[in-house]
Design brief:
By secondary structure, the protein is an alpha+beta fold. The protein has helices at 3-37, 58-73, 78-92, 122-125, 128-139, 150-158, 170-180, 201-211, 230-242, 244-247; strands at 44-49, 52-56, 188-191, 216-220, 223-227, 249-254, 257-260, 265-268, 275-280. A six-stranded antiparallel β-sheet has the order 4-5-9-6-7-8. Strands 2-1-3 form a three-stranded antiparallel β-sheet.
Length: 286
């Protein structure tokens, strides 16, 4: 090989190495950018019961968890939570909205309850805990509501202009009610982006106490420990997962499993028997 050819070869190799370095750097930068900004993460919460999977946005799931939790505190069966969730999905898409429609201009809140129809003041019906309790209060007066079709039971409470619409949401409502009342362990999962803010365990305690009052709870550092067992334990654990975006939670551990925000899944873990352990996030702002 001539000297000129050797020079050309060296130059080609150098150019190749430079190109590979640039490509490698670009790939690393892109991967780091995506990891830090999580631009490709689609936040969602799913309920899986049997072969069926249903999906809600995180804010909708948090409201579903609240509605289901109130049913437990009233000592109601999971059927009541199914009816309530089907109603709220139809009426407000499980969002605490502050407006009504042409049929009910003064309708407000998760259940679109009307102050003019005796549901309470405008402020009250926009309090999700009050609204859920009020819905169940009326539902409990419906004879045989447990054996009625979901849409019929919902319509008896709501007296809607669209009495058959609740049936469209029955399967979805049953799946989330089964998970959020603790009947289906580890059936509720949320995929979330990294928390930007640091969570406050005392705020988590206050929110949990509003939905599940009377539980023995204690805060230690970034952890909230809740004494709960069996079905109630799973109801509390999955309430926490459903509320993880709203409350900036990092993990929820119970009964040999732990939901990890980074993984977006329940994984095997060494957990304390009889306790739900909720850990708040150390946000990116810290």
């Amino acid at each position: 090989m001539s000297r000129a050819a050797r020079i050309r070869r060296r130059r080609s190799l150098v150019s190749l190495f430079v190109l590979l370095a640039l490509v490698g750097g670009a790939v690393y930068f892109a991967a780091t950018f995506i990891d830090r900004n999580q631009t490709l993460v689609r936040e969602r919460c799913t309920a899986v019961v049997g072969s069926d999977t249903f999906e809600l946005a995180p804010d909708q799931a948090a409201n579903a968890a609240l509605i289901s939790g109130v049913s437990i505190e009233r000592g109601l069966p999971a059927r009541a939570a199914s009816i309530a969730l089907a109603t709220a999905i139809q009426e407000s898409k499980l969002r605490n909205i502050d407006y009504g429609d042409a049929a009910g201009p003064d309708s407000r809140g998760l259940f679109q309850q009307r102050p003019s129809q005796g549901w309470g003041t405008e402020e009250q019906v926009q309090d999700p805990v009050y609204a859920a309790n009020k819905f169940y209060e009326v539902l409990e007066k419906v004879p045989d509501y447990e054996s009625m079709p979901v849409t019929d039971a919902a319509q008896t409470v709501q007296r809607s202009a669209y009495p058959l619409a609740y049936a469209d949401h029955e399967a979805e409502a049953k799946a989330f009610a089964s998970a959020l009342t603790g009947h289906s362990p580890a059936a509720l999962n949320c995929v979330l982006k990294q928390a930007e803010s640091t969570g406050d365990p005392t705020a988590v305690l206050a929110q949990l106490a509003a939905v599940h009052p009377g539980l023995d709870m204690a805060v230690a550092g970034r952890e909230l420990r809740v004494a709960a067992a069996d079905q109630r334990g799973w109801a509390v654990a999955q309430w926490a997962v459903a509320s993880a975006k709203q409350l900036d939670l990092e993990s929820v551990a119970y009964a040999g499993l732990s939901w990890q925000r980074d993984d977006g899944a329940w994984v095997a873990a060494d957990t304390d028997t009889g306790y739900v352990v909720v850990t708040v996030a150390q946000g990116t702002e810290a």
